[in-house]
Every structure is written in C-alpha cells, then in structure tokens.
Specification:
mainly beta; 10 Kd Chaperonin, Protein Cpn10, Chain O; seven-stranded mixed β-sheet; 7 strands; 36% strand; globular
Length: 104
Amino acid sequence: MESKVIKINLEEGENFSVYEDRLVVEIPQSEEKTSSGIFIPETSKEESLIGEVAGVGDSEELYIKKGHRVVFNRYAGIDIEIKGIKYKIMRQMDVLGLITKEKK
C-alpha cells in the first residue's frame, strides 16, 4: 500500500523546519528506466530505504546530523514533497543505521 504524500507549498522566503528529535530525510529519485531502456511504471518502483538528512530538530540529544546518510525502516515517518523533492519526516529512533566512509 502506497502512503499519501503531503505536498507543502512554500512561498518565497519561507522555510520548513522540524522540532525535537525529528529528522527531514531526502529520498533519492528512483530510476525512470532500466539500463536496457525499459521504462519502469510508477507502481513498480520500490521506495529507497536510504536517504540523506536534510534537516534536524532542535533536540540536544540528536546524534544524527545534517548531511548524514541513513538507513531507515520501510514504514518510518510521513512522506512530504517540497518543490518537487520527496522527503520523509521521521524520529531519530526510526533510523536503523548510518552509512559512513571508511577512514584510511
């Protein structure tokens, strides 16, 4: 079952922010077609469970920061769309893990 996306229309100069332990995670766009050129219908696309944190709440207990790549539960948060970009708003506890680069 596909969840409903809440579209948020911001006027010029307006910003969107979250509070407490909430995160705004940008969801990457799925491919429109396969490498062989076959177009994938919208109903067959699988939603990514990995995203980049675009904004964080004001809780001092947040260890996840803006710019972190995270893995989250399939049913985490709510879906929103701002200026054509899809995001999820979720709590920090919905994050299953961080994706980090190995230090050499």
